[in-house]
Specification:
Number of domains: 1
Helix content: 25-40%
Shape: elongated
Largest sheet: 2 strands, parallel
Number of helices: 3
Radius of gyration: 19 Å
Strand order of the largest sheet: 1-2
Structural class: alpha+beta
Order of helices and strands: EHEHHEE
Distance between the termini: 44 Å
């Protein structure tokens, strides 16, 4: 768990997390951009994935989060990267026309999110 240096994260709270097997990590001093990035990612995962499911325990929640993180890093378009995923080194080649039978639909999170790709020749 990553958190800022707010006083609401008391010693008792940190000890509770450690007892549950969760390693709390505090953000460095004077790093407001890191906190904003963490909060934005938490908002993104909540709105794009977790709000659409009822998690049936920690194992199911871990599965949903890991599936979304995989999708987020390998498939989801990011506007700051010219709509490329973070793990993509170069933009895909451009095609003039694509027939429907050349398109493959890949589903993530049980069909909640769909990605479309051109089938390799």
């Amino acid at each position: 768990m990553i958190h800022d240096r707010d006083t609401k994260f008391s010693v008792e709270f940190k000890q509770f997390l450690k007892n549950k097997g969760i390693q709390p990590k505090r953000l460095p001093i004077r790093s407001p951009n890191l906190n904003a990035r963490v909060e934005r990612f938490v908002q993104t995962i909540k709105y794009e994935a977790l709000n659409h499911f009822i998690a049936f325990g920690p194992r199911h929640l871990d599965y949903l989060v890991s599936e979304f993180v995989d999708y987020y890093n390998k498939h989801r378009a990011h506007s700051s990267r010219k709509h490329l995923p973070p793990c993509c080194a170069e933009p895909p080649p451009e095609f003039e026309t694509i027939r429907l039978d050349e398109i493959h639909c890949e589903e993530h999170l049980g069909g909640l999110i769909k990605s479309y790709e051109r089938i390799a020749a």
